[in-house]
């Protein structure tokens, strides 16, 4: 009997954890690489509603391959029985001979054998779980979405080799009961802090921004219930303009009721028909179960609070994937995700969410538009691959995605104008940032800078995977774009990059974007960096940045210039400014010039702004990389640097996660302690006096600059004198 989503002898199981081990040889459910990520992202992103109306994404959606062939050759030392679990319709072949029907178990004699399982599943992703003593499903199985078998003239089955087979994709579904198609995020009960009658409604406050399912206790009666969700009290009470609401009709005796879709809110405003009654309101908090491995604490309690709220913001915006915001849009945007990857490396260091998000964003060939339709978001995607490799050391992911990188870069190269620059063509969205009056006309310098960096990334990755000819080609293209960047956009008069190149001429307008990226990309000489710091970053006449999105990079550039003391004050002013207004998570945009409920308006809507946005959590990254000062210099922290900078703090301590444990740092104005479980490190320290360490010898590298080699699993205690 044919069955879709055929699960043999097992009941439906909901996976309750996002955070399991990354063991390549683990027995697990497998599928065509990237397909589950695409399918799951489609499931997640198409849950968005706006005032009760379905709100789909703006870009082309890809789908999984519905028919997939799985195979592997095994050397079986002794006869064994093998169990087979499948999501979809399927057939099984042993050495080219098909078994009858839908076998739940097969017998495999000793010897070398090839197993093929072909699966069809249109509704969800074709997936298999195979369990035997030596025969098991893991990432070493080879897959194709094409028919690779044919019968030759002798009647034997042969393989066609016109298209290469690929290694299986997997996640953490490591038992037969953990159906990939049934995955859901875990939930836990959470009570409200107050419930108050306001007019004809009941206003419920959960105390802080949160995400989950509203639950009504001892609900009974017949009639309509309307729930208006608000990130602010004003939004929940303004029933005409709330961004999200639920309306349901019930007819039940007394019992609990949970609304179908999870939503973002702090407040809910509930209205019922006269015959409908409930006793209590609570929620089921929905979350990704990721462990905090990194940490930061210092003498400044405001900075500590900023760090804690940034952590909470990051966790709320980390779901099946790294999304932008929990009220709106609940989508995977590449620019937002790129910042989440970097914050992740300093907090949870969860490789699986990074990989899932990268794969979902990329989608499939053929490519017909930029990722999310945005030029700069495509370019961030390239950078994310090498960053992931640097922080994780996972070379297999790079190898497996090189072809995806190459075809996407081929698309990008085809979008150049006659000058060899990237310029917005029909269908391209040049985003950069949300900023009033920001010109997108012509070839913008910021896009060329990201383009050059993306080509450099392609050259690095091509070299890693052994494609030397490609590496040389991409390196040459990168050099050409960098030369044009300086020839066209660098202004000796302005001491900075100008914003754009329009109709054959550079403009005279200077913005912060290309200039600040050029600093931490290390594209500028020391003299040019000094020019940019004074003429752009510290120049109040250059239009300010009002989104946490680009403040992330502005403050990173200042940290890279050694301006942590200035950045500390900016964090206290900007993120502290949100806290002073009662923020319990960080916003999509913050303009100190606004007041009252005007802070909630965006996109022409009274409450259009997201009050919990992933890009608001950037202090996690800044404090880990530029204050604790820990960063890898070769893949997986085989080598790394520690260059602590107090930035006006009296003391700080924290942990930075690596693939093999946490690097621990304590720093005051006179003492420094370091312990690392991984690699060979280089401690770089500025001190008024020669620093002392009984377990190592400092080497002087310049005026007041000293260097110490850090070995793994050895605690270093240092005395010095901070500036």
UniProtKB/TrEMBL annotation:
Residues 68-270 form the Alpha-rhamnosidase-like N-terminal domain. Residues 629-666 form the Alpha-L-rhamnosidase C-terminal domain. Residues 1-21 form the signal peptide. Keywords: Signal. It comes from the Bacteria. Residues 292-625 form the Alpha-L-rhamnosidase six-hairpin glycosidase domain. Pfam families: Bac_rhamnosid-like_N (PF21209), Bac_rhamnosid6H (PF17389), Bac_rhamnosid_C (PF17390). InterPro entries: 6-hairpin_glycosidase_sf, 6hp_glycosidase-like_sf, Bac_rhamnosid6H, Bac_rhamnosid_C, Rhamnosid-like_N_bacteroidetes. The keyword Membrane does not apply. This is Alpha-L-rhamnosidase C-terminal domain-containing protein. It comes from Niabella digestorum.
